[in-house]
Protein 1
Amino acid sequence: MFRDVSSCNTYSYGDAYYWDARYIQEGGSFDWYQRYAALRPFVRKYISPSSRVLMVGCGNAVMSEDMVKDGYEDITNIDISLVAIDMMRRKYEYIPQLKYMVMDVRDMSFFPDESFDAVVDKGTLDSLMCGTDAPISAARMLAEVCRLLKPGGTYMLITYGDPTVRMPHLSRPVYNWKITLYNIPRPGFQQPESCSSSRKSYLDPIPLTEKGTLAADFVLEDPDSHFIYVCRKIDDAEIVDTSMYQLTADLL
Ligand SMILES: C[S@@+](CC[C@H](N)C(=O)[O-])C[C@H]1O[C@@H](n2cnc3c(N)ncnc32)[C@H](O)[C@@H]1O
């Protein structure tokens, strides 16, 4: 399995003690990679406000608060850091739409199967990929995410990891996810004037090859951009419906 150590500043990102110490030291709030405003078009497109949402590795990000302000009604936030969860629980005790729990994404057995319509992950799989036993941790986490999603539900992963390092983990047949990929520049990125882009909009999905890689001629405008993997858990009923349609079509 691929491990993207080149992008990890520290192996400690997979370690609860590291995160506790960091949250004690830094306090306040911080959103990794992107704020909700930039992600909103994707979130609104794939996750309806009435969804039951699980935010994995919420840290002290404002993302969930912004989603509630935008109409989301039920967001359960989990993190391995007790410090982060204590802070967030106190900060948001007046917002009933937000719940906070200490939990390891590799073992979310507290929740029954198919508990959520959507799971949002901004930087948490990335953290695990920097820790020890990265491939095993990633597999445990993704198996749990898949178990918790309702059929037709969505796992939205916001990451710096390009398809070479993320698709081998996400495309395992056992998950049965239909994956759509987007790429957005980091906040504040200015395109050099000399560059003219052939892409219409960041809202257009990026085609993947059959091997799950970027096309050879695909150019990243911002080398430090972020990828959004929208992984939709295929509903078994859809498969049955499609094969029934095929059967009917064959008979006609
Ligand atoms: C890069 S930060 C992202 C925080 C937040 N999602 C954001 O966008 O700002 C990764 C978060 O994952 C949490 N984390 C790391 N390993 C975890 C695990 N095994 N289970 C749950 N949370 C974990 C860390 O405590 C940290 O808050």
Protein 2
Amino acid sequence: MRVGFLGLGRMGTPVVRNLVAAGFTVTVWNRTRAKADELAAEIPLTVADDPAGLAAAVDVVMTMVADDAAVEAVYLGPEGIAAGIARGAVAMDLSTVAPATSRRVAAALRERGADFVDSPVSGSTKTAEARELLLMVGGDDATVARVRPVLDAIGAAAHHLGPVGTGATMKLALNSIVFGLNAALSEALVLAERAGIDRLAAYEIFASSAIACPVVHYRRAAFERPGEGPVSFRLALGVKDLGLIAELADRVSAPMPQAETNLREHAAAAADGFADWDLAGLAEWLRRRAAAPPDRACRVGGEVAAEREAAVEREAAAPPDATTQWEAAAEREAAAERETAGQREAAARPEIAE
Ligand SMILES: NC(=O)c1ccc[n+]([C@@H]2O[C@H](COP(=O)([O-])OP(=O)(O)OC[C@H]3O[C@@H](n4cnc5c(N)ncnc54)[C@H](OP(=O)(O)O)[C@@H]3O)[C@@H](O)[C@H]2O)c1
């Protein structure tokens, strides 16, 4: 089987190595060509000039790129996969994107007589290297059966969940837990340190305790030695995922107060210069915030606490047919803003009268 692979990032590169090791004839394309040429100098594969040319020459096209915009570009852009894919070929996207993006790409390929499956993955760079990825697959039965040999070559298990878009949906549900865990680990580590426990001793307890799932182990070095060593998952991609989770929650009216907080916190860390750090950079961001001058730290903490209390009260008073939680959150923020402005105005009035 001839396989094409687009996207030689942190995850795509080890996946390609496993495809070659499994005996597939592999052609690759990457936006930054130098990465493809470097890999081709190391293992037997061909480098294509553009996505359309690659798609025309293979039986299965695989993509693993950063985000929805990148997926749209490689499939639907000029010289994209849709422009070249052969009738009867299959494309498979491993990126974490919105289910609607997967469905849009599937529809465009269907017009060309080609099929599509979304197959995002759970795991990290080390999991990908070890061929231990968990794949969540969306597509029709016959198409998924055709790509089984490829799925088996890159992961430990592939679960077929339903039609196109269900893999992407399940990945977002799963990742909402990953980011909750990242925030909880970050906060707990900084809490222990601030209270006088050595960082490595605290992490040893996490890694030996009831909460020691694989994430706690494979992110250990990044938590213990912040800013050193290789990045396995960029914090910016986490913010992207949390945005997709928020959109999905909004669309299906699922209450996700934790994910809402996690989006706000991870986005603030990214905006403060941690976007290209590993996801564990959230702990370092909290550590630096904790070390900021006490008046600033207290002010931030006080505002957050007051906002939370007010939100709980407003939620309890909200009419049952209130708009979605995300719209409600925006309304809450606007109301809090109006309240603060009103208080400021009231405080200023006596002075003006005098
Ligand atoms: N890292 C993880 O632990 C992990 C785990 C599970 C799922 N994922 C998901 O897997 C996907 C890839 O993650 P990664 O960590 O490998 O990311 P990465 O290291 O940042 O690599 C991103 C890849 O996307 C390409 N790309 C970005 N924008 C593009 C565009 N507009 N057009 C074409 N190509 C573009 C990049 O090309 P250049 O080389 O030219 O920049 C690169 O090949 C993401 O959706 C991520 O959420 C990651």
